[in-house]
């Protein structure tokens, strides 16, 4: 068994918890025949960190209560020589010992909310652990649909008109918000600002439908975005792999759904939902003109660089079928199923994709560690302490 442990982190406090489990199982399945030792890091819906071999098998998630009993609580820590480890925080038996696993790298497989929004990435940074995918900045901005569009708009990247508001604003002044929506002209799209997988997303054709959509969306987020609907709509997605310095784009895809706007069910529950995003209906490569494909790939590269993304991301675009206008919709810094189905069409299977993500994580971590990360001075010497005492005295 390899001494290089890869922790696959998934689950989390998110409406997309189950989608995350599916993506993680795909990662684990793809790397089972690799030279790495796979360590699951499952975060429950209550925020509890668990590890253990039962977490490596998808069928065990059918009974979460039993699974939690079989798993072991864990946390990040450091060993005696300062290396990051995944540490079991309880002993399974009186005579047993707590296991500790030195971490070579982490593959975050979270979707939505805590996990994909930069919070888990920040934890990895704190423990100095290499991790696959985008850093704190790209993850946090990419998760916030409003700020993501503001960033793109500042770089003259095409986005659809929108406005956002908070729940308290809706409670205090509904009429003003409804007026703004009317100015956009119906139909409009209501979106929770910080969720993915189309959860809480509704197309509203009139004011009454809009009010109902807003009330539903506030179940998931306290900040909503109302966006002018693109009609007639065609959605096109493209994946980017690499770093802002060196990257490549995949082929494009055209997702298919029962509605004009793809739902959660369209994305994840086709064919029983066991394959995550890979089960969704789609046309690959997208049946669009070559010039449009090249434009979308070029925009994908620009946006990936603008967000300082790394690892893998999926860029989603809205196309007006009549005018062929292209609008950036969102960036997914941990795309469902890691968009492996797009890279298969580009000649790279799931295992090769995961190994590439690990390589990028290690190289970026090594580059960071090669920089000056501390300044050789002692601000806490006797002279400095006397100065601080003097400042305190001056306030008396």
Automatic annotation (TrEMBL):
<protein>
    <recommendedName>
        <fullName>D-alanine--D-alanine ligase</fullName>
        <ecNumber>6.3.2.4</ecNumber>
    </recommendedName>
</protein>
<dbReference type="InterPro" id="IPR013815">
    <property type="entry name" value="ATP_grasp_subdomain_1"/>
</dbReference>
<keyword id="KW-0464">Manganese</keyword>
<comment type="similarity">
    <text>Belongs to the D-alanine--D-alanine ligase family.</text>
</comment>
<dbReference type="InterPro" id="IPR011095">
    <property type="entry name" value="Dala_Dala_lig_C"/>
</dbReference>
<feature type="binding site">
    <location>
        <position position="332"/>
    </location>
    <ligand>
        <name>Mg(2+) 2</name>
    </ligand>
</feature>
<comment type="function">
    <text>Cell wall formation.</text>
</comment>
<feature type="active site">
    <location>
        <position position="337"/>
    </location>
</feature>
<dbReference type="InterPro" id="IPR000291">
    <property type="entry name" value="D-Ala_lig_Van_CS"/>
</dbReference>
<feature type="domain" description="ATP-grasp">
    <location>
        <begin position="149"/>
        <end position="359"/>
    </location>
</feature>
<dbReference type="GO" id="GO:0008716">
    <property type="term" value="F:D-alanine-D-alanine ligase activity"/>
</dbReference>
<feature type="binding site">
    <location>
        <position position="330"/>
    </location>
    <ligand>
        <name>Mg(2+) 1</name>
    </ligand>
</feature>
<dbReference type="InterPro" id="IPR011761">
    <property type="entry name" value="ATP-grasp"/>
</dbReference>
<dbReference type="Pfam" id="PF01820">
    <property type="entry name" value="Dala_Dala_lig_N"/>
</dbReference>
<keyword id="KW-0133">Cell shape</keyword>
<dbReference type="GO" id="GO:0009252">
    <property type="term" value="P:peptidoglycan biosynthetic process"/>
</dbReference>
<keyword id="KW-0479">Metal-binding</keyword>
<dbReference type="GO" id="GO:0046872">
    <property type="term" value="F:metal ion binding"/>
</dbReference>
<keyword id="KW-0460">Magnesium</keyword>
<dbReference type="GO" id="GO:0005524">
    <property type="term" value="F:ATP binding"/>
</dbReference>
<feature type="binding site">
    <location>
        <position position="330"/>
    </location>
    <ligand>
        <name>Mg(2+) 2</name>
    </ligand>
</feature>
<feature type="binding site">
    <location>
        <position position="316"/>
    </location>
    <ligand>
        <name>Mg(2+) 1</name>
    </ligand>
</feature>
<dbReference type="GO" id="GO:0005829">
    <property type="term" value="C:cytosol"/>
</dbReference>
<dbReference type="GO" id="GO:0071555">
    <property type="term" value="P:cell wall organization"/>
</dbReference>
<feature type="active site">
    <location>
        <position position="16"/>
    </location>
</feature>
<keyword id="KW-0547">Nucleotide-binding</keyword>
<feature type="active site">
    <location>
        <position position="197"/>
    </location>
</feature>
<keyword id="KW-0961">Cell wall biogenesis/degradation</keyword>
<keyword id="KW-0963">Cytoplasm</keyword>
<keyword id="KW-0573">Peptidoglycan synthesis</keyword>
<dbReference type="GO" id="GO:0008360">
    <property type="term" value="P:regulation of cell shape"/>
</dbReference>
<dbReference type="Pfam" id="PF07478">
    <property type="entry name" value="Dala_Dala_lig_C"/>
</dbReference>
<dbReference type="InterPro" id="IPR005905">
    <property type="entry name" value="D_ala_D_ala"/>
</dbReference>
<dbReference type="InterPro" id="IPR016185">
    <property type="entry name" value="PreATP-grasp_dom_sf"/>
</dbReference>
<keyword id="KW-0436">Ligase</keyword>
<keyword id="KW-0067">ATP-binding</keyword>
<comment type="pathway">
    <text>Cell wall biogenesis; peptidoglycan biosynthesis.</text>
</comment>
<dbReference type="InterPro" id="IPR011127">
    <property type="entry name" value="Dala_Dala_lig_N"/>
</dbReference>
